[in-house]
Amino acid sequence: MGITAFNPSYDDMFFAQLQNELDERAALGLLRTRRTLDTPQSSDIVVDGKPYLAFSSNDYLGLANHPHLIAALQQGAQQWGVGAGAAHLVSGHFAPHHQLEHQLADFVGKPAALLFSTGYMANLGVVQALVSKADTVFADKLNHASLNDAMLLSRAQVKRFRHGDMEQLAEMLVQTASGRKLIITDAVFSMDGDIAPLPELLALCEQYDAWLLVDDAHGFGVLGEQGSGSLSHIGIASPRIIYMATLGKAAGVSGAFVAAEQVVIDTLINHARSYVYTTATPPALSVALSESLRLIAQGDEKRAHLQSLISQLCNGLSDLPWQLMPSHTAIQPLLIGDNQQTLQLSEELRERGIWVAAIRPPTVPQGTARLRITLSAAHSAEDIETLIEALHELAQ
What we know:
- There is one protein chain.
- The protein is 44% helix and 17% strand.
- It is α/β, with parallel strands linked by helices.
- It folds into two domains: 32-61 and 299-395, Aspartate Aminotransferase, domain 1, CATH 3.90.1150; 67-297, 3-Layer(aba) Sandwich (Aspartate Aminotransferase, domain 2), CATH 3.40.640.
- The chain has a seven-stranded mixed β-sheet with strand order 3-9-8-7-6-4-5, with helices on both faces. It has a four-stranded antiparallel β-sheet with strand order 10-11-14-13, with helices on one face. A three-stranded mixed β-sheet has the order 1-2-12, covered by helices on one side.
- The longest helix has 20 residues, at 8-27.
């Protein structure tokens, strides 16, 4: 029996189409490329051999290279190895996983918690497990891509409301008479840095018998009492709230967790596909994260320093020709608008040894390309002044 001949013309056309699509993205200033860090994550990094002052990571408390976490990870690997070897429901659920889940639940004031490999997988798992065809998801239009993908994969009916528009959301809820109702929102919006109107969202949940999924990827560790997150920062609590936070940003390590009522967690253990059908994270990571929780709880001084840096930056950039979007969080977006101009500013900052990411569509809406400045407790006041001076020079 002969082997099917390789058809170069077909494959050449296929590759040419892909290249044409990439070329079109490049012409629009939308092509994405990677740069390689040659140092650990820090406020000072080396990228492709060149040193930079970095304002582009989500390491908000400066824990990603903390010696206590490094030591904890080493100790965890020594005791538990470097891989889980199986899914949680097979033979991959280790004592450090179990302990960390209890610690996380206590830390955010929920009855139970469940670890996921990433925040993306957590959001996919929660939404898919809790709603289906007969149900409706209500989503803020500026939600993170993981929440958007999750609601589409759930096959529930999707209704998206204007960013922060509670009147429009209320109208949508009134018009939805049957099925489960799940409102999903970022707590701190990752590209704008503003905080969702969580009390108003919860009030609507109570009025219309809905659940509220809060993605606190950018609030956990930074906001609230002892860094316990946006719910604590706002001062709300309810069994209706399903809380998700990531562990690779302010916590400095990797992974994510969902905290909720025990019946919700049990449902996820049985039905969240991104939990059931994936290998567990290495237990050594949970050992490191237990230490990270301790550092977060004791991190009031770091959080106060971060807030002072945020104020310094906002004051220093208030007179630029570009608008600093309203945000009191570590995410400080400088709205430029044009894709190519945003890329050019980012490149000119790099030439001055400063690393700030250029964010363009489709990550943000058309016409709202921006420099996404992110601050860390690892920065100094001198670092902030360096950035302020550079941006003023470029503005002239």
